[in-house]
TrEMBL record:
Domain of life: Bacteria
Name used for this protein in its record: DMT family transporter
Regions annotated as coiled coil: none
Name of a matching Pfam family: EamA
Major location (coarse): membrane
Organism in which the protein naturally occurs: Lacrimispora xylanolytica
Subcellular location: Cell membrane
Domain EamA: 8-140, 152-288
Alphabetized InterPro entries for the sequence: AA-Vitamin_Transporters, EamA_dom, EmrE-like
Membrane-spanning residues: 7-25, 37-55, 67-84, 96-116, 123-143, 155-175, 187-207, 219-238, 250-267, 273-289
Keyword list, A-Z: Cell membrane, Membrane, Transmembrane, Transmembrane helix
Family the UniProt entry places it in: Belongs to the EamA transporter family.
């Protein structure tokens, strides 16, 4: 593999995770005026429109199988993932959701092994996964947040992690067709929005566009639509295309770390000793898992 492309893949994946780790601030602001479903729909409509403006050319697929991969990626990575994550947050503790979602890299590695004939997760990968989960647990479960099982919400969070792993597999397969990243992401967004329509018939959203006259609402929804959706999904898909599903997914471990750091910067929250050790363990787990992948790539 071209070393320069390899570097760009890592930078693109790290950038996506950095932005996604900060989105909770924008979401927290928007939840004052919007429902979780409204935020989801508006951000992906904005993202879809932005991708058309960035590359206003229609993409042609060559077969029904190829088109079905886009449909599967859309329903898994956009519709199901975000809906299940959002509903999980209403049924269980945020700390439960963040820790369970962090299992996505492990599930992705299993899917890569089973469905893409990739490497079987080795001892160092497993050690890295366990270390990262312990670190994320330290970050998530502290203060007034205690471990409390909520079966429905926790299962939804687990299913969300599974759908993200499936999304990674589908985007890897899509990458083999050689389409541009912007075109690929736009087609995935199209299906993601399409599969939201049945949900909207049950849980309708309010248009009430006057809410965007509030500068804070407008800037935050634009950040989620243009940055966290259009740009970051494109850079993430590029990372998957260049690095593969497993290498890219490992960066998910860093999301809670970025969330803690941005909370300190923007919300003036203090860094507890427990969070500090959690950050160290999470980063150690990321590097441990990544070192195994690198070793396998060199053999």
């Amino acid at each position: 593999m071209n070393k320069q492309n390899h570097l760009y893949g890592h930078l693109a994946s790290a950038f996506s995770i950095f932005v996604w780790g900060t989105t909770f601030i924008s979401t927290k602001v928007l939840l004052r005026s919007f429902t979780p479903l409204e935020i989801l729909v508006f951000r992906f409509i904005i993202g879809y429109a932005a991708l058309w403006l960035a590359y206003p050319h229609f993409m042609k697929t060559k077969s029904l199988k190829e088109e079905s991969l886009f449909a599967c990626a859309g329903i898994c990575g956009v519709t199901l993932y975000f809906l299940m994550e959002n509903f999980a947050l209403t049924m269980t503790l945020t700390s439960n959701v963040s820790t369970i979602i962090a299992a996505a890299p492990f599930i992705t590695a299993l899917f890569d092994w089973f469905f893409l004939k990739g490497k079987r997760p080795g001892i160092r990968f497993m050690a890295g996964f366990i270390t990262a989960i312990v670190g994320i647990g330290l970050i998530s479960f502290q203060g007034n947040s205690t471990l409390e099982l909520n079966p429905k919400g926790d299962l939804l969070a687990l299913f969300a992690a599974i759908t993200w792993a499936a999304y990674s597999v589908f985007t890897k397969k899509i990458g083999e067709y050689g389409h541009g990243t912007v075109e690929t992401t736009r087609r995935i967004f199209f299906y993601g929005l399409l599969f939201m329509i049945p949900v909207l018939t049950v849980l309708p959203i309010r248009l009430e566009l006057h809410r965007f006259s509030n500068v804070a609402n407008l800037l935050n929804i634009l950040f989620l639509g243009l940055g966290a959706s259009a740009l970051c999904f494109a850079t993430w898909n590029f990372g998957v295309k260049v690095l593969g599903t497993v290498k890219t997914s490992i960066y998910i471990y860093a999301v809670p770390v970025i969330t803690v750091i941005t909370s300190m910067i923007f919300l003036k929250e203090t860094l507890s000793l427990q969070s500090f050790f959690g950050i160290l363990l999470t980063l150690a787990g990321l590097m441990l898992s990544e070192s195994k992948i690198k070793k396998q790539a060199e053999t």
